Amino acid sequence: MIEVHQLTKRYARHEAVRDITFSVKRGEIVGFLGPNGAGKTTTLRMLTGFLPPTSGTARIAGFDIFRQSLEARRKIGYMPENVPLYEDMRVREYLKFRAQLKGLGSSDTRRRVGDVIDTCGLQSVRRKMIKTLSKGFRQRVGLADALVHDPELLILDEPTNGLDPNQIRQIRELIRQLGQSHTVLISTHILPEVEMTCNRVIIIDNGKIKAADTPANLTQRMRAAGRIQVEIQADPEVVAGALHRLDNVKKVTPEPLADGWTRFTVWVDSGTDARERISHLASQYGWPLRSLFSHVATLEDVFVELTRRD
Ligand SMILES: Nc1ncnc2c1ncn2[C@@H]1O[C@H](COP(=O)(O)OP(=O)(O)OP(=O)(O)O)[C@@H](O)[C@H]1O
Ligand SMILES: [Mg+2]
Q1: What is the pLDDT of residues 14-35, one digit of tens each?
Q2: Nearest ligand (C-alpha, residue 12)
Q3: 37 with 52, same domain?
Q4: How far apart are CA 9 and CA 171, in angstroms?
Q5: Same domain membership, residue 237 and residue 207
Q6: What is the rounded distance in angstroms from the CA atom of residue 154 to the CA atom of residue 168?
Q7: Tally of structural domains, the chain
């Protein structure tokens, strides 16, 4: 549904997006994740035809977004970062206006506006002026606008930005429902949002793609490369030395606890597990051991690991 090939965007001096390549299959809900300034909005604006790339190509449903812009755009429902709404229009009137602008005829307009008002839960405010709406309802109007021409693909730039926790849940639920019948690319820096709604995550930082995988695989990969925690009651230097001599152990950090116990964090190579060998070691030397587990990585660990600046 989306094919991005070696896309680059250079602003005056700054390279905001650098040679990124990725694709999104029909039916996927993909999270586009990255810290502030990573290049998310820049990428999405290129994908939706609003911003010409410096180099590279993007295809939507097979259509080149710049050479076949009209056909490509018809497939896309785009909700920008700050939804520009006409404050002095009423909700239904605004959506009708947008539908006509997108080239829908009058009977299609009537039908589709009715549909998206239902889908997006706008019944109760359809006659209200946009300027009187809460932020949550404004986001719904933005989503309804993105949906009105019945696109196959939704591209949403931080759709829950600035909402309160209840509104976030409602919008997230709505997006999940829409994901059953649409392909969705959604940019965010809210991690639980991605874990709850997306089948796949693309992590971007500093204009480059750092990872693209399912949330489960990303955290799994992290876990494999992860760390083990063990508490042993013996001379910390002796224990640390012995742990360090085990195969696949990269680093050991001791942390003193009460009553002669020490908590050791053991960093191991990816794809290896040293728990059994640690337990053998302790029984071999007769060290009292309590608690031995490998740290369960979260998507947040992955994100921090891939995008930290130190
Ligand atoms: N019109 C512009 N002119 C010059 N630089 C820009 C322009 N728009 C964005 N940038 C820069 O490009 C980089 C990427 O910006 P972008 O808005 O794509 O990031 P983002 O990932 O969407 O961030 P956020 O999470 O804050 O929305 C930033 O360093 C930004 O300052
Ligand atoms: Mg942005």
Answers
A1: 999 999 999 999 999 999 988 8
A2: 1
A3: yes
A4: 30
A5: no
A6: 18
A7: 3
Contact 152, 26 (CB under 8 A): yes
The finding on whether 39 has its CB within 6 A of some atom of ligand 1 is yes
Residue nearest to atom 28 of ligand 1 (CA): 37
Q: How many CB atoms lie within 10 A of CB 133?
A: 18
The alpha carbon of residue 39 and the mean position of all alpha carbons in its chain are separated, in whole angstroms, by 13
Q: Can you tell me which atom of ligand 1 is nearest the CA of 43?
A: 18
**Which ligand 1 atom sits closest to the C-alpha of 81?**
27
Q: CB within 8 A of 232, min separation 6: which ones?
A: 239, 261, 262, 264, 282, 287, 288, 289
**Ligand 1: which of 10, 42, 46, 50 to mutate, most ligand atoms within 8 Å of CB?**
42
Q: Read off the CATH number of the domain in which 286 is found.
A: 3.30.70.100
| Binding site membership of 151 for ligand 1 (Cβ less than 6 Å) | no
CB of 37 closer than 6 A to ligand 1? yes
Task: Kindly tell me if the per-residue pLDDT of 223 is higher than 60.
Answer: no
Q: Is the pTM of this model over 0.90?
A: no
- Tokens encoding 23: 């694709």
> Closest ligand 1 atom, CA of 11?
4
Please indicate, yes or no, whether residues 120 and 264 belong to a single structural domain of this protein: no
For residue range 127-157, list pLDDT tens digits in order.
999 999 988 899 899 999 999 999 999 999 9
With beta carbons less than 8 A apart as the criterion, state whether 2 and 58 touch. yes
